[in-house]
């Protein structure tokens, strides 16, 4: 779902017939909108994205773009992507908070499991080199680049009740939609159900666990930071850009996130060889082997 920003049309005087009063007029008006762009939208084809979304990408990435979108704060998006896709999320304005869920295409019962994503690699603070594990012990994705290091794998996302108590509303179409509500709508549109919406990984808003066990909000690393995720299997990606549950600010506020994705199958081999993020830990290697073994078994059928 994208939010578009347009200049309001000039109001038609009461004595004039609006141009859209007839079918032909409505069709002409609709066709006039073709090619118009907005501050936040999905670009189709992806290659039509403005330079600000593709700045810094290698030339080969620009040639292989499969997704280009700017997701407004308070909105969501979803897209099935192929194995070997590299996704870059950029917090251009410095106040995004992107809640991420991954599901295996064709086997949607398998999805990212944040408990295993934290406990298996012995690391509660995801950054470059961190594996994203499914509930079947397989490697769904790897964070292969990160200039933010302000993320949260522990707290989850906001809820209808929480947002209603804090901001006065939390439904999808309200002025302060909760993360779970946005992710649920995104999931429904991908053939999933509300019960399939598990705790997500939250990017660009960090936390730290203090010695007494309390969780402390550390906020954003600032504008222009980015995270790259490499997919190890065909996956459905759900994103909700909305407030962090521990954000202490009384107002519902944030900025858009820019998303681009391109086919980078060669990165799968580089990662396995330790030439992308460094040598893999034993846990990361085992999860990767589990994924490759399953893919080989499926191919051999």
Describe the structure.
This protein is an alpha+beta fold and 301 residues long. It has one domain (70-300). The protein is built from 8 helices and 13 strands. The protein has helices at 23-32, 51-54, 59-63, 114-119, 160-167, 179-188, 266-272, 282-300, and strands spanning 65-71, 75-81, 85-91, 98-104, 131-133, 139-146, 151-152, 201-203, 206-209, 215-219, 225-231, 235-241, 257-263. Strands 1-13-3-11-6-5 form a 6-stranded antiparallel beta sheet. It has a 5-stranded antiparallel beta sheet with strand order 2-12-4-8-7, covered by helices on one side. A two-stranded antiparallel sheet has the order 9-10. A hairpin with a 5-residue loop joins strand 9 (206-209) and strand 10 (215-219).
Mean pLDDT: 94
Order of strands side by side in the largest beta sheet?
1-13-3-11-6-5
Count of distinct strands: 13
Strand content: 15-25%
Number of helices: 8
Overall structural class, as computed from helix and strand content, comes to alpha+beta
Shape: globular
H/E element sequence: HHHEEEEHEEEHHEEEEEEHH
Quaternary arrangement of the chains shown?
A: single chain
Share of helix, binned: 10-25%
Number of self-contained structural domains:
1
Cα separation of the termini: 37 Å
Poorly predicted sequence stretches spanning 5 or more consecutive residues:
4-8
**Taking Cα atoms only, what radius of gyration do you get, to the nearest Å?**
21 Å
Largest sheet: 6 strands, antiparallel
